[in-house]
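Re: beginner question about structure tokens

> Can someone show what the tokenized structure looks like for a real chain? I only ever see the sequence side.

Sure, here's an example I had lying around. Input first:
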Amino acid sequence: MANYDHDDLRDRSDDMRRAAIERAPAEPDVKANNPKDGFGVLKASMSWVSMPVVMEMAVGMAEGGFKYGGHNYRVCAPRASVYVDGAIRHICDWWEGEDNDSDAQIEISNITKAITSLCVLRDAMIQGRYIDDRPPPSPNGWLKALGEKMKTLAAKNPNPVARYLANGKRGAGRIL
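And the corresponding structure tokens:
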């Protein structure tokens, strides 16, 4: 395997994983017939969700709540395009190296602000109170077709030139 800038991280990651497994406590005594388990495990569970991300999103939502009124999007139907555009702008800012939202009143990640934009939109969708101003739809499968073109490009370029990373180093040319 080629020696890319991230190989040392992979090695450390494996070591950290092994150490965590060794430190893991023994499985506690669990009642085989606990009736609550059978029902509880089938319900939506927050244990699958990263709490630091959820709580950071709550801070981002609070900023919007202070500026516009909490849950305003449940009363005044938001246009989908406004929140999709906002989420994409935050992702683009982050991708291009601006980690935090420069317009925010606090230091908060552009990724978190993108998540909050999508949270507002999704909640409005669930509540049935949003304006669907998407353009007419593209044909089904358009994105999958582009994925197939990428596979063709990859097959025709088995040894691509490595890309440059944010730290100025070069990473893997292809990750397939």
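Each token stands for a local structural state, so reading them left to right follows the chain. The chain is about 50% helix and 0% strand.
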